[in-house]
């Protein structure tokens, strides 16, 4: 049974992964972390992650364009890396997002996105 | 076991964790709570203001009530309710861990945020859920402090967190945008339910509800409590509450009995009554019922609705065991006069009626 730690280990196995965390985006709190965070500060990174997710969910209209639409991924590309955010959809009340930081040279965006999708699903769906 | 005394709960948690203790830190006051330690690590936390793992899982429909009850029946005595649910295939390990982590930080906010509260540590106590996760107490304390700041940045009025939620009758502007949780809160706010009631009802994290309520207060969408000067017992708290609790248990057991002791600063703001010292009981509801009995101050004793009244009882008494005798010294007294209660009650009734209109 994959737990939270296992999920993060798997995330770090994604080619090019530098760091990973699971973030509560209402409060910007890193529930679990591994590897490196931007500026070596997981808590600050989590706070920033939360701001980005909040901006996409409540401060913009992307998610309310179609009824029952749902935010899945947020992908930020920078010159040096990729930052992937995948929302973890639990049945019970939680507001969690899986965050993985990839190195630009070694990382492959498409592969990483597929892997994260699988990880986030496995975390909460019995296989 | 340490004696119940008014200290900073967060500080005592650090101290107990430093000694790698196992047991439970019971925080009194309103809403209070409990933080469970296993060899210096936080394994669970609960508070009447925060839905626990069971409420989160059943209110969302993730688990059937029966499934949860079965796991409780089987696993409570051996403290492995969590493990059972995973072994029986009802939950994934990931779900359980995330749910427990969420519940810990949520309840810890309510239990540990008071600057000072009656706190005691019961050595050796463990939680029936079992150790699903291990969290560093320092991380919990840091996060609690951060959450306090976050709320104050949104809207610096802690009264919003505890008083009954009453939506304004007329929105302050032509067009308003709500998040789905804000909608749910407004739809279920009936002028009577406190934020804690709403969180339990909706199965949403208590802190998240408080956060959204503060946002709505900042937008002018919910009525602010009209009572001005915060005092320890300024809302619907008859003065004699302390003695009543003592009478309820003649031989004073250790936990959180010092109701009359100093209340923490943060709590001196519109906090609902706790009739009982068990941190797991959402007694907020009971207290509200008592307080909202619409009777002017010196009443012809109107039996509180939540008691099966076999004799007329003054409404200020704490909950007692069924059939327990009324203590003599209390039974003989004339009904107490609650100065100021009239006005507060009337205002609350007015707010409630307005919300119904």
From TrEMBL, chain A:
It comes from the Bacteria. This is Roadblock/LAMTOR2 domain-containing protein. It comes from Paractinoplanes bogorensis. The lineage of its organism: Bacteria, Bacillati, Actinomycetota, Actinomycetes, Micromonosporales.
TrEMBL record, chain B:
Residues 303-314 have a biased composition (Basic and acidic residues). Residues 291-341 are annotated as: Disordered. It holds the Pfam family DUF4388. This is ADAM 12 protein. Residues 7-148 form the PatA-like N-terminal domain.
